[in-house]
Amino acid sequence: MPAGSSLSWHLDVFPDRAAAEAAKGPIAVIAEAFERTWLFTIAPSDWRAAGGAQHVATVGPLETKAAEYTAMYVATTFRPGLSSFAHMHPGPEAWFIVSGEQCLETPDGPIRGRAGDGIVVRGDLPMIVHATGSEIRRNFALILHEATRPATTVVNDWTPPGRCR
């Protein structure tokens, strides 16, 4: 993806891995998580997977200034009340919330989301993710980071004011 390009993250569900493999393009990853087979694709916002996929979400735009980047996908499960450590990423981070709720605490203010929401935040933004509500929060995250930098950096010089609690 050229620097400054605007693409989106597409999340599609297939009946099995073979069907996902048949539809997989060059900028796609297959994940088996949360009792389903997922195809994650980075493509223009109007792109759609072939082969009988159930399109679940389009999350974006994903803005990056890096000449080269790496996509890191993560599936996480947090019980209500659990939080991440203070951290940041050298590129945008996107989430798709499969179940439950979360609140992202940042210096720019809180960003709340619930099941079915897709959220994107800019790179180099200090943050803590909190699982809120009463249901287990399951989500996928995409960290699109500069290839020459680590995906995640611990933040020690920012103290969240507790706006998500």
The third-level CATH topology is Jelly Rolls
Any guess at the CATH architecture?
Sandwich
Shape: globular
The figure for the number of domains is: 1
* Secondary structure: helix percent: under 10%
CATH class: Mainly Beta
Oligomer: single chain
Q: Secondary-structure element sequence? A: EHEEEEEEEEEEEE
Number of strands: 13
* Computed Rg: 16 Å
Average pLDDT for all residues: 94
Low-confidence stretches: none
Commentary on this structure:
The chain is built from 1 helix and 13 strands, in the order E-H-E-E-E-E-E-E-E-E-E-E-E-E. It is mainly beta and 165 residues long. It has a single domain (6-154), classed as Jelly Rolls (Sandwich), CATH 2.60.120.10. The strands form 4 sheets. It has a 4-stranded antiparallel beta sheet with strand order 2-3-1-4. A hairpin with a 2-residue loop joins strand 8 and strand 9 (109-114).
